[in-house]
């Protein structure tokens, strides 16, 4: 199991490295590094709105929605809020911006829309990648999710977007959707809110939830760490409690190598 976890770390590390290289090249082509954060965000949204034609498939549901190379290259995925936000977040993070997803929830905890929050001038302002907009008031001030709880502010920010759904409101939201787990998420949100208030804000969940390669790397690294600790504990227990000799793989390899390469003595 330890060897499998190590191989998983190596494979997923190479996967994550290749994805980062791809995103770095992609973002360099469309996002000006020297511009302020607001202009960088606007450049990404402008590319999503007016970029070159993307690929089209007959069954977009078969595409991996958390693979950046896929979400950036298929027109249908750039038109759906979840995968459009995935594409936006990966480009923004690749360019050094602090960005995270924000789920707008119904009263019973189901996701009705997905947007992004970007840290600009010390405030987490809202961008809607599906509609290619940064939400602003009439004076051009960027709005936060707290500002958008006001229906009048939301209506003003989206007035230029044709047919913007009226139910995309900000009364209830989350960064992590635990209700997708069985049994209503095992009541994990209630437990975490009680044990670790503000846990969604304290930890950066974006890459873990939005990029398959990073999730695979994190999972395999965690498994490797746990198995290393288990191996150390079991070795200590065998040596100090059970008092039994252990099969030491390294010693056996050394003995085998010595036997194989040593010229036998002839008497």
Query: How many strand elements?
Result: 5
How can the largest sheet be summarized? 5 strands, antiparallel
**How are helices and strands ordered from N to C?**
HHHHEEEEHEHHHHHH
Overall 3D form: elongated
Summarize the amount of helix as a percent range.
40-55%
Span between termini? 45 Å
Low-confidence stretches: none
Tell me the β content. Answer: 5-15%
Structure annotation, total helices: 11
Mean of the pLDDT scores? 88
Strand order of the largest sheet: 4-3-2-1-5
Rg of Cα set? 25 Å
Structural class: alpha+beta
What does this molecule look like?
Helices cover about 50% and strands about 10% of the residues. The chain is an alpha+beta fold and about 270 residues long. A 5-stranded antiparallel β-sheet has the order 4-3-2-1-5, with helices on one face. It is elongated and about 95 Å long.
Features:
267 residues; alpha+beta; five-stranded antiparallel β-sheet; 11 helices; 5 strands; 50% helix; 10% strand
Chain-wise SSE layout:
Layout: H1 2-30, H2 37-50, H3 68-71, H4 81-94, E1 99-105, E2 111-120, E3 123-128, E4 133-134, H5 151-157, E5 173-174, H6 182-185, H7 188-195, H8 199-202, H9 206-210, H10 212-242, H11 249-261
Antiparallel strand pairs: 1-2, 1-5, 2-3, 3-4
Helix pairs in contact: 1-4, 1-10
